[in-house]
Amino acid sequence: MNAIVKKDGLLAGKVAVVTGASRGIGEAIALRYAMEGAKVVVSARTVGKGDNPLGGSINEVVECIQAAGGEAFAVRADLAVAEHRENLIKQAEEKYGQVDILVNNAAITYFMSVLDFTHKRYQLMMEVQLYGAFHLAQLVLPGMIARKSGRILSVSSHAAIHPAKDSAAWGSTVYGMCKIALERFTTGLASEVYADGIGVNVISPGLVATPGVVHHKLITEDTPPESVTPVEHMAEACLRLVYGDSKEMTGIIGYADEIMKEYSLTAATLLD
């Protein structure tokens, strides 16, 4: 069955900002939200086709959504820069109105030992993956609180799980630090805005064969197929976490495969 945009879908009329949406998981989330009627602000650093060796761009994602009859708008943003974060929300509000859904998906990652980690790279990862998400939440929360409605969803990783002492989990220490802090931020914020009707959740995808994952060789020929999560499953789980009763759908630290099973979800075919 061909993928379509439903103007009266689950997210009809909602304004969604998705960061890191030029490819991979962010692109899939943007497409899935658009299919349910959301007006999607697609953000990343890669603007046009050919701008990045990994492929994908925010302009291409927007073109795909618009070609299917959906609404989308591209905003270039380097989330390491405060002014870019502020401009992202400003442009989203000027184009579509106040933000109903914020998806913190953008990340920059270096896999290297603690001994070799430079201060510059440490700061950059913390700024993009953690403070960037924190700051964007601060920017959209006033409007959400005023309307007593809103959703904030962040993308974590299984790297947040404490490794066994003999697991030789080389290179992922700082990445795991970022993600476990993001999870604690999520549950803390969920508690703070519970009475305001705002749902705040975090989800881990597992291994998804995105361009970035392949680039870092996190999936190889020896990786068992059953351990790889289809990107469509991640998109479907991320959709489920941004609608429904906000008093129930909040404070969740979820995993894509578990969300799919718990809510008996069937992954939709994405726009292409």
Computed Rg: 18 Å
CATH architectural group:
3-Layer(aba) Sandwich
At the fold tier of CATH, the topology name is Rossmann fold
Give the tally of β-strands.
7
The helix/strand order is: EHEHEHEHEHEHHEH
List the defining traits of the structure above:
272 residues; alpha/beta; Rossmann fold; seven-stranded parallel sheet; 8 helices; 13% strand
What does this structure look like?
The protein has 272 residues and is of the alpha/beta class. Helix content is 40%, strand content 13%. The longest helix has 29 residues, at 119-147. The protein has a single domain (15-262), classed as Rossmann fold. Helix 1 packs parallel to helix 2 (58-67), helix 1 (24-35) crosses helix 7 (231-240) and helix 4 runs parallel beside helix 5. The radius of gyration is 18 Å and the shape is globular. A seven-stranded parallel beta sheet has the order 3-2-1-4-5-6-7, sandwiched between helices. It is built from eight helices and seven strands, in the order βαβαβαβαβαβααβα. The two termini are 13 Å apart.
